[in-house]
Design goal:
The complex is a heterodimer.
Chain A: E1 5-14, E2 17-27, E3 31-35, H1 42-49, E4 57-62, E5 65-66, E6 77-80, H2 92-102, H3 107-120, H4 136-148, E7 154-158, H5 166-181, E8 185-190, H6 193-197, E9 202-207, E10 210-216, H7 217-225, E11 229-234, H8 238-245, E12 251-257, E13 261-266, H9 269-283, E14 289-292, H10 298-308
Parallel strand pairs in A: 3-8, 3-9, 6-7, 7-8
Antiparallel strand pairs in A: 1-2, 1-4, 4-5, 9-10, 11-13, 11-14, 12-13
Helix pairs in contact in A: 2-3, 2-4, 3-4
Chain B: H1 3-19, H2 22-32, H3 34-43, H4 49-87, H5 91-94, H6 100-132, H7 141-167, H8 171-185, H9 198-209, H10 224-248
Helix pairs in contact in B: 1-6, 3-4, 3-6, 4-6, 4-7, 4-8, 6-7, 6-10, 7-8, 7-9, 7-10, 9-10
The chains are: A alpha/beta, B mainly alpha.
């Protein structure tokens, strides 16, 4: 294994609970997405990489160094944790500058770097405000600023887009792509696959503390699309809607849930979503809501997990 | 300036500022003023000059040292690590290139500096109030000795409580038991038992330095050197042990997989 980060059979227990269960993956250069449902072990993996936790079994290295350990190599790593906690009594600028000084930068250098990092996450106007008055999105941004301010080689981002508004997501995504373009290596976790798809083709999928798929996202997408997807619809006329849906080739089954809901199983969610608006317009059928049970990928992860057994 | 010293200074400054902020700072400042207020209240009754001065000295041994200093150090030191582990903010320090023992030293010195900002006024202002209110002026040795003893107490208790906060979730409770049972009750027991308390050595030091006055009557069965070394040793040992513990400590709070 010669990746930027190499995990080989990494296991982490929290008492009786397994946080990671023989997790094995190689993270190479550029951006790699770590995708998995909540509770899959993503944050545990990041905490192990950040040296906050020690694995119970297996080997985990980053930049050629064991993850459990301190030293100068930590200056080559930036970590943006998932939690919202920070030193709320500090201003954003003070927060980033102080952490740079703790990393050994001189005062002048720290102030200059903090200014650049804060500017790159779009918080210049709010840099002198106390963190306690920051919105959730602003807190995510200042965390990202402290993570990149020392120009680390490897950047670990645990759900970095969580809580950020759509405009902010677009600008932060652009920043992450720019960082990758500038030669930084990024590992970005998310429980939303499409969020990661916008950043990279390389993903590692994790479920129940284990790797369930690794590699090019399109190959994994094909694997996901090959199984029927569950879509739930709400309509005042579910039987009328079911008559039309039943004629579609890719619809496998239709189940009625109460008086106004349908559960549809389709082999081609893309075709389903493409055809549904047309049906609504052409036939005048009212559809109040559409829910994909697979949106959070739990079902996909279950499917892939079962495939691993 | 070397990198590690630069890091240490940044940690000290962070810890110092973090210690003295918000309602906690206001509350502790008010608490530190209690001995001064008591002396002022007594002075308003126009007691004899010698009696007023003597009362201010006694207050140091009976209230300031065992209660005010103890509470200030307990509040400021226990939370240095415990609050940050629980709030998950310690990660911002522990994932950096700074050596973990340096974090312990920085937090110790920063919180000690903040504590001294309260402890020293709590020690000296009552004496000043007594003098200004007509009490007998103190020879310089009295405030100097009391300040030295207060600083030693802060160094010892600060280190010990910081260590407790690092290793135990029940640090505050253990600290309270230590401060108000161990340190208060053990000195009342016969034989060598009082030697297992810090306050025994602090009071002994008062007696070594002050040959007259109300603070001169404590036991001096231990040497001057031992009176200084015991509290200082506790503080230093706690910080050294704390550095070793943090080096091997998992700093993320225990939780289920996430």
């Amino acid at each position: 294994m010669t990746g930027i980060v190499d995990a080989e059979g990494v296991t982490k227990r929290y008492g009786e609970v397994l946080g990671l269960n023989g997790f094995t993956a190689t993270f190479s250069s550029g951006i790699t997405g770590l995708v998995g449902p909540n509770g899959a072990g993503k944050s545990t993996f990041f905490r192990l990489l950040a040296g906050q936790l020690r694995s119970d079994a297996g080997t985990l290295t980053l930049l050629g160094h064991p993850a459990w350990g301190q030293g100068e190599f930590r200056r080559r790593v930036g970590y943006c944790p998932e939690g919202a906690a920070m030193f709320d009594w500090m201003t954003g600028e003070d927060f980033v500058t102080t952490l740079l000084r703790i990393d050994g930068f001189s005062r002048t250098d720290a102030i200059e770097r903090a200014g650049r990092a804060i500017s790159s996450v779009g918080l210049t106007d709010a840099r002198e405000r106390r963190i306690r008055v920051y919105s959730k999105g602003m807190r995510q941004r200042i965390k990202l600023a402290q993570c990149i301010a020392h120009d680390p080689e490897l950047i670990l981002l645990d759900e970095p887009l969580n809580g950020v508004d759509p405009v902010g997501r677009a600008s932060l995504s652009a920043l992450l792509r720019q960082l990758s373009h500038d030669g930084h290596h990024l590992i970005v976790s998310s429980h939303v696959l499409y969020e990661v798809e916008r950043l990279t083709d390389q993903i590692v999928m994790i479920s129940n503390g284990r790797t369930i798929a690794e590699g090019d996202i399109h190959r994994i997408r094909d694997l996901i699309d090959a199984r029927p997807h569950v879509i739930e619809l709400e309509s005042p006329d579910p039987r009328g809607l079911a008559r039309f849906l039943g004629s579609w080739d890719h619809v496998v089954s239709i189940e009625f849930l109460g008086t106004a809901r349908l559960r549809v199983l389709t082999r081609s969610p893309d075709a389903f979503y493409a055809a549904l608006p047309e049906l609504v317009v052409s036939e005048g059928i009212t559809v109040r809501a559409v829910h994909s049970a697979d949106d959070n990928l739990d079902a996909v992860f279950r499917y892939l997990s079962e495939g691993m057994r | 300036m070397s990198g590690e010293l630069n890091r240490l200074l940044a940690l000290i400054w962070l810890s110092f500022r973090g210690s003295l902020r918000g309602s906690r700072a206001v509350g502790l400042t008010g608490f530190a003023l209690v001995p001064s207020l008591i002396v002022a209240a007594i002075a308003s009754g126009h007691p004899a000059a010698a009696s007023l001065s003597s009362t201010a000295e006694n207050l140091f041994a009976l209230l300031t040292l065992p209660i005010v200093v103890m509470v200030i150090l307990l509040v400021l030191s226990v939370g240095q690590f415990r609050n940050e582990i629980d709030a998950e903010t310690l990660v911002y320090l522990s994932d950096r290139s700074v050596a973990r023992p340096t974090i312990v030293v920085g937090k110790y010195l920063g919180s000690l500096g903040a504590a001294l900002g309260l402890v020293i006024p709590a020690t000296l202002i009552p004496l000043a109030v007594a003098t200004l209110a007509g009490g007998t002026p103190y020879p310089i040795g009295v405030p100097a000795t009391m300040t030295a003893v207060a600083v030693l107490a802060a160094a010892a208790y600060g280190g010990f409580f910081l260590f407790l906060g690092l290793v135990s979730r029940s640090a505050l409770l253990i600290g309270l038991l230590f401060g108000f049972l161990w340190e208060e009750l053990l000195p009342l027991l016969p034989g060598d038992v009082p030697r297992f308390t810090v306050i025994f050595y602090l009071r002994s030091l008062l007696s070594w330095e002050l040959s007259t006055g109300p603070l001169s009557h404590f036991s001096t069965v231990v040497s001057f050197g031992a009176s200084v070394a015991a509290p200082l040793g506790l503080g230093v040992a706690s910080v050294v042990l704390g550095g070793i513990v943090l080096r091997y400590l998992e700093t993320a709070p225990e939780r289920e997989a996430g």
